[in-house]
Amino acid sequence: MQKLNVAVVGCGYWGPNLIRNFNQIPDCMMKACCDLDEKKLQRMRTLYPGIETTTKLEDILNDPAINAVAIATPVYTHRNIGKRCLEHDKHVLIEKPLASSSEECLELIHLAEQFNKVLMVGHTFEYTAAVNKAKAIVASGELGDILYISCVRVNLGLFQPDINVIWDLAPHDISIIFYILNQFPISLNAQGKAHFNEKIEDVATVTLNFPNGTIAFLHNSWLDPDKIRKITIVGSKKMLVYDDISQNEKIKIFDKGVEVPPYYDSYAEFHFSYRYGDIYVPRLNEYEPLSFECKHFLECIREGKSPRSDGYSGLRVVSVLEAANKSLRNNGAQQQVKID
Hints:
The protein is α/β, with parallel strands linked by helices.
């Protein structure tokens, strides 16, 4: 089997993780990386002596040996870099969010279809053992009907210069919710506050309304003293808590709930029944999700498959982010979510 040659554009925060994982895949050649900062490139050369480095994107684009490009650059550059890579016959993996607007997402999707190339977005949590276990549990009906989902993703920093906290942190939980529920919201509202940089909110909440009546709450902050990555899924039968920070108990199932009496003659006879059952921790076969994601990207290229987190997945998440921004700018007004 001929090896696929991969290049990574962007060697800042996330790019080195992509380089490391592609470099560890036996049927892949981590051929080149690109960044404007020569110091970052020097670090990559030190870690991976065989890698080619360049400060010019054109060197990546004009190399016919490079089959695929992974892009880990600021969000506002995703559309232009992704577009040029697709036009130069490269398969493309773009870190979340896919682009700065739904229009840009659609442009990339149509280009990928036009040139018959794989377009994938880095919704890494969709490839974790914990999220896939949670998805299987929800699909089995063990939790019953899903009443609501609460997501908390907060920490102190890192402040982004070009996007607010919703665009930075919420894509993770939005993609997880969509993946687990396999449905998308019809409306939302968002509130937030910019404490340091004007028009770049550093704390925000988003409420998503789904067509079946499920509601989801997202809380994101760069100004919290604790680092929290927790999702609570409350069902009519049981409850599930996914804590990504936990080392050994990432998922807990709570056999707890509220039961309404089947009938009663008067208000005085009406009493809720609270159930307090066992708590158990499902076993997870852990692995590095980014490695799984990178292998999935290469598999889709080889087999001509659509990725789990394809361009349309990226479009759905960006459509929600756009609607959340509109709500923020309109004092938390309800916004319809349009997914073209």
